Amino acid sequence: MSIRTLSTREVYRNPWLRLREDEIERSNGARGIYSVVEKDDCAVIVPIDGDSIYLVEQFRYTIQERSLELPQGGWETAGVDPEELARGELREETGLVAAEMTFLGTLWIAYGFARQPQHVYLATGLTMQASDPDPEEHDLTVRRVSIADFERMMLDGTIRDGCSIAAWGLYRLWKERQKS
């Protein structure tokens, strides 16, 4: 290991995240401080219906913009079953229920400063029910777009959410291997 933790202390905690500060020693002997944001597992869902995909649009406070992205989120609960989380987030945000959920992989979100795994699922066999958004998702809207338009939006900068783009990459790799 190239970095050794000498001590750790929790700096801040709320229901959504924990911030800790570690005193570290690098392999060259240099000491320093490393701050780590810890969050519980989350999920991103790729909901495909034929040649269409469902996206959500909502205001993201950190960038002060509305963002178009794949449905995603977490429950701020440790130890939750990833598929249950993905199904729950899909229903909460879009009202969609999937007949089949296919696990595509797990990503680390911004692991340069954060420790949060994100589980990626393909959702198919979709039926619409009522959505149940969290209070902070009061302005969330659902959009169904063609897959061609979705890919164009990633390339032209309309969609800049790294989690959505990475999840789409996993889906495309998985899909390509299904042909073999």
Structural features, described:
By secondary structure, the chain is α+β, with helices and mostly antiparallel strands. The chain has two domains: 36 residues; 137 residues, Nucleoside Triphosphate Pyrophosphohydrolase (Alpha-Beta Complex). Helices cover 22% and strands 48% of the residues. The chain has three helices and eleven strands; from the N terminus they run E-E-E-E-E-E-E-H-E-E-E-E-H-H. Strands 4, 5, 6, 7, 8, 10 and 11 form a seven-stranded mixed β-sheet that branches. A four-stranded mixed β-sheet has the order 1-2-3-9, with no helix packed on it. Strand 2 and strand 3 form a beta hairpin. The protein is globular. It starts with a strand and ends with a helix.
SSE order and pairing:
Elements: E1 3-13, E2 18-26, E3 31-38, E4 42-49, E5 52-60, E6 65-69, E7 72-74, H1 82-94, E8 96-108, E9 114-115, E10 117-128, E11 141-146, H2 147-155, H3 162-178
Summarize the structure.
The chain has 180 residues and is of the alpha+beta class.
Give short descriptive properties of this protein.
single chain; 180 residues; alpha+beta; Nucleoside Triphosphate Pyrophosphohydrolase; 2 domains; seven-stranded mixed beta sheet; 3 helices; 22% helix
